[in-house]
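=== RUN LOG ===
request id: a7f3
mode: sequence -> structure
chains: 1
length: 261
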Amino acid sequence: MGSFLVEIKNADVYVGGNPVLKSLSWTLNEGENWAVVGNNGSGKTTLMKLIFGEIIPVYGGQVHWFGKREHTPLLEVREKLGYVSAEYQNNYDRPALGWEVVASGFFSSIGLHESVTLGQKESALNAMAHLGIENLSHTSFRQMSYGEARRVLLARAMVHRTKLLILDEPCAGLDIPTRERFLITLEKLSKKRTSMIYVTHRIEEIMPCVTHVLFLKDGEVAEQGKKDEMMNSETLSRVLGCSLSVEKHSDRYWLRPTGTL
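=== RESULT ===
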């Protein structure tokens, strides 16, 4: 096992004066892919913003990145992080072609405001080719389907050799065929030595490449551990607050409701 990619210790986070994360401690190590699971309001997105450096913990809580416990400039951290979410897609409102959106990942910007080198453009096109979306390179981002735009943003997140990819409910708004294509793309990306944090409240989206699961409930860690130890009916029922039966097929997990607790 290598060094940690993210280490959080005793993090309390308040949003609008309300406690959202409570004494949260969690570590993601090299070689691990985590799913973060919880109901709406459990603190999943706030945790991702904490990891991305958008918010900070209070009362002495700590966040460390990429094996360093000393202070690390946020710009240096974000050079190794990729972020994909439905919310980010909705906020990407600049006119741009597909390859330009991907290339903007080099500058962590919405739209291109700096000159792109030939090498950066080539890397952007290569990232799109790796995901099988090179046909979108000269398509206007605004004219893409919802699913096409999501895959372009995935290429954007990967273009600068991301060490950790944060996916905050990335399949929100996608229909089932588009969702499955997107998940297959993620499984393919998992072979590139990029670790992932996949946030969801739908366990059928947890792909075989996921190694561990973190369950959040009311802003606290309810359970965490290796995937096969976490994905059982008892744990899911307790964390999600309803009686559920978990079945495993084709290396993925599926829920069958059995009633209400």
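=== NOTES ===
The mean pLDDT is 90.
The radius of gyration is 18 Å.
=== END ===
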